[in-house]
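the two lines:
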Amino acid sequence: MKPVRLPSLVQITFATAVLFGVATSTHADTPLHLSHDATPDAQVVIRNVKGDVRVTGWNENRVQVEGSLGSGAKPLQITGMPSSLVIQVESNGGSSWFKLGGSDNVGPTSLDVRVPHAAVLQVHVVSAPVDIDGMDSRDISVNTVSGRVHLGVHAGSVKIDSVSGDVDLAGTTRSFDAQTVSGDVQAATLGGNANAQTVSGAVLLRGSALDNVNLETVSGRIQLDAAAANDAAWKINTMSGDVRVGLPVDTVARIKADTFSGDLHSDFGKPVTSEHGPGSHLDTGVGKGGGNIAVNSFSGDVHIQGAAH
Amino acid sequence: MRWLALAASVAGVAVLAGIIGIRLVHDRPMQSTTFHSTAPLADVHAAGGWKPADPRLRGAAIELRAAQGELQQAMAMAPHADYLQQLLQHTERQQSRLQRLERDAG
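prediction for all of em together
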């Protein structure tokens, strides 16, 4: 019987080191340095499941991507034409980018994207936080599940769909539309039209003269501090959230408010409590003409306050 | 010397087995967070209990169902409050949006 030849210690150490290197190398993040020509008002679509997305507007007609690609992701490319570009992080497995649970095989990708400041932007993420700054765009939209969204932008319209991620607009827009289930919605400098709908998320908005306002929550509180434009049409509805509306003392509008079992207080007009049933009601005209403000609550308290703006 | 080489071989095999084991565990899909629901939306509605597998959507689905129940109770107490009907429709639209997200996820 021939003696079995055992590998030497050096051979074993070398083989182990090689195998260990192979085992770990596929999990290392890959640095990203990509660039693509773009038109000044290019449409740019960014898709990333998890990690983070930062988008900054700049004065160059070029899209640039820096950051790091998560393990298990396909090599990243900027695809499309200069007028329409896509940056999409995909799994190496070739599955849909939007695998909420399956994406656990792909490591987090960090995208730091520069785009022409007038680009039209669409960002789709699942759990990645999104920060967009320095843009002066016609249209910005963000879809997220649990990632928070922060926008420091000037945009003709902003549309955000979220499930549990908070939404924060620090810039200005003429048309703001935010939908969440439990995420809070905040915007500090609105103008034009505002539409926000949540289930339990709070809606906290400030603005200048607002035209059309449609705010709805089931249990989230609502606070709106703004002036009503001359032809304003404001509708604020909640089931159990408290509502606080701050209006300039010189507001000209017809103000109606109803609550079934909550308290109703107003610096404009005098609320009436029903003698034969529950509820409080306010219907008052402040000044001549103006727009319409309607607030409805089932059990939440309603406060309409006059404030010096 | 032969014993030393044998011991080293055993140690090397153990290290290799460990690495392979770690890779297998790491690469295994997380079954608990993948979607299993492939039922058409109509069937889901008919079942009356949409339960997405993803924990982020599952929490939102529970919240939406609870909100719909509370709204229906409020509507029973204040049947002429049209805005409650609008809020209920709003929760139904949110639910449809979440179901689309689940479908998109495959």
